[in-house]
Amino acid sequence: MSHRNTLDGQIALVTGAGKGIGAAVSKRLASMGAMILLAARDREQLAAVQQEIASAGGRAEPAPLDLREESSVAALAQSVKERFGRCDILVNNAGIGITGQPLHETSPAAWDEMISTNLRGPYLMIRAFAPLMIEARAGHIVNISSLAGHNPLKNGAAYSASKWGLNGLTYSVAEELREYGIRVSAVAPGSVNTEFGGGSKDGSWKVQPEDVAHVVAMIVTQSPQSFVSEVKVRPLRKP
Ligand SMILES: NC(=O)c1ccc[n+]([C@@H]2O[C@H](COP(=O)([O-])OP(=O)(O)OC[C@H]3O[C@@H](n4cnc5c(N)ncnc54)[C@H](OP(=O)(O)O)[C@@H]3O)[C@@H](O)[C@H]2O)c1
Hints:
Blueprint: E1 11-15, H1 20-31, E2 35-40, H2 43-55, E3 59-64, H3 70-83, E4 89-92, H4 108-136, E5 139-144, H5 157-177, E6 182-189, H6 209-219, E7 230-233
The structure holds NADP nicotinamide-adenine-dinucleotide phosphate.
């Protein structure tokens, strides 16, 4: 697959772009010519990723966002509409993972935090950005789910529920938007080497963030007559 310049002129919005998978996806799409809007809460992290992309000759801008807040999502959508009038690629990647407790010991606050970030967040983003794509009669929405959205996750029921929910949302919205030329996909990685959920000491056996970025790059360069519903990405070796 030839990458450079394939996405020239396109605007890509990546949530959770300050680190981990989102940073890797942002760098990859920027290297293919897209202008990246780097969305997350931590402005210093966004500035650092922007700097890295600029040093490599790419284009990116910080787009501060708390996707738990409807007003924050609406403000970003308004500014993207006014400044660019389009959003070609939306990567709903931001997510949190609070695990380690059985559901009956999980507080309602932790449950709400999980669902509002991992499930309601992508809903708010699609609600805000799909109209721009519908106008353009084109677009890619890529939701970063998890193998935990297919498998049981002992002591991680709230996380697992958020990702099972995200898969249902993804497949349903794909049916709603395909008539507008908008392709909606899920990527479901297994363990990825990031700081997510506290990370772990030796992450070399895990899927690397760049591996997930490679899959996103593949999805958004799919030829126009087809679309990818979902890709599962597993570590080759078991821990
Ligand atoms: N790592 C894994 O093993 C793994 C496996 C399968 C799936 N995933 C999924 O992959 C995605 C990315 O995970 P990662 O490993 O890259 O995690 P990470 O390194 O912890 O990064 C998460 C990103 O999400 C952002 N974020 C969290 N809450 C947010 C909010 N309310 N508003 C806006 N941004 C928010 C964070 O930025 P701020 O805190 O600055 O806002 C950060 O940039 C998640 O959806 C996760 O569920 C990860």
